[in-house]
Amino acid sequence: MIANLKHHSMTPAEYLTWEAEQPLKYEYFQGEVYAMTGGTLPHNDIAVNLTSALRGALRGTGCKVRMADAKVKISQQGPYFYPDIVVSCDDRDRTAMDAICYPVLIVEVLSPGTAGFDRGDKFKFYRRIPTLREYLLIDAEKVAIDCYRKGNSRRWELIAYPEDAADPENPVLELESINFSCSLEMVYEEVEVRGE
Fold first, then answer.
1. Dist. CA 175–CA 133, nearest whole Å
2. Least confident among 2-6, 89-93, 105-109, 146-150
3. Which pLDDT does position 1 carry in this prediction?
4. 115, 139, 107: which is closest to 42 by C-alpha?
5. pTM: predicted TM-score of the whole model, two decimal places
6. Mind listing the domains of the chain with CATH numbers?
7. pLDDT value at residue 186
């Protein structure tokens, strides 16, 4: 969840210098900075569940999973976002100190206050990253995951889980970008959701 706490426009360089001295994380979008506020417990549980599964599955593959505090840079001019989970398989990101520039997978756990932005403008900017192959949006209030996957024609295809799963009764999330699959049950393990 984000809240705009700064009201004067900043350049990307000013933002990077200023944010490095702040006790909180701030996203940077169109010259404005937005404080990253805490999410709900279900939001956190989902992020931890998926990060844990990804970390184990990607060990030794050359891909690295990071969560929450990993800033993603769209371009030198911004924007700069903090997704819930980001995976990069690029050597340049393995040694990066400030921001991830070459992600293959970005995951956002949706909250009511940010869902529209995550699906709209944020995704519009994420699509500019040439290495990005999948963008995952996970609902924290009900069992529902949207996976946007860049196809061979460079068009983005939507796979909606559980509806588009091979077996909707026992849905399995498939992430082609990193050759990973897991049950939706694992993503939502010990998470209280409202249902349909």
1. 9
2. 2-6
3. 37
4. 139
5. 0.91
6. 39-187 (3.90.1570.10)
7. 96
pLDDT of residue 7: 55
103 and 88 in contact (C-beta within 8 Å)?
yes
CA 184, 186, 188, 190 dihedral sign is positive
The token pair at 31 is: 């010259």
pLDDT for res 152: 84
> How many other C-beta atoms can be found within 10 angstroms of the C-beta atom of residue 148?
19
pLDDT for the residue 67: 92
